[in-house]
Amino acid sequence: QTYAPKLILLDISDISCIRDVAKEILNCYGCVDILINNASMKVKGAVQSISLELDKKIMDANYFGPITLTKAILPNMISRRTGQIVLINSIQGKIGIPFRAAYAASKHAAVGFFDCLRAEMEEFDISVSTVNPTFICSYHRQPAPGNWEASIWK
């Protein structure tokens, strides 16, 4: 069956709204056949210059966001014993480079989670894939002095 597309806005770093969005999607379509986690935030800077607040925001967007959405959709896939989950991650989830500590840490964490999930979902015939591309060109805003949020790559 073919469904008309529906636009649902989601800030993947706002963990508190993800379950409601997943519920809205499931109520609208009844199921999710393929979940592609493809949102990301990154920041460039020395470890000592990046605040813990920004580290947490990066971790929310790149780790907790995708796993929260995946966990919200997963019971439906398990009950149907079918589905595909894809994480579009980064090569920095395998190899860290200087001035990207928060980003690399969040991507390493995501790789670990989805590797474990892959093994656990095999018995339910749910496919879990992780794609780790090399560097890509992303949207970037030049930061105003003292405005760390503007230094985030989305």
Report on the structure:
There is one protein chain. The protein is 42% helix and 10% strand. It has 154 residues and is mainly alpha-helical. It has a domain at 33-133: NAD(P)-binding Rossmann-like Domain (Rossmann fold). The chain has a 3-stranded parallel β-sheet, with helices on one face. The protein is globular. GO terms for molecular function: oxidoreductase activity, acting on the CH-OH group of donors, NAD or NADP as acceptor.
Q: How would you spell out the order of helices and strands?
A: HEHEHE
* Secondary structure tally: strands: 3
**Low-confidence region ranges:** none
Taken from the alpha-carbon principal axes, the silhouette is globular
SS field, number of helical segments: 3
The largest sheet, given as strand count, sense and whether it forms a barrel, is: 3 strands, parallel
CATH superfamily of the domain at 33-133: NAD(P)-binding Rossmann-like Domain
CATH topology-level name of the domain at 33-133: Rossmann fold
| Helix percentage range | 40-55%
Question: How far is the N terminus from the C terminus?
Answer: 34 Å
**Text of the CATH class of the domain at 33-133:** Alpha Beta
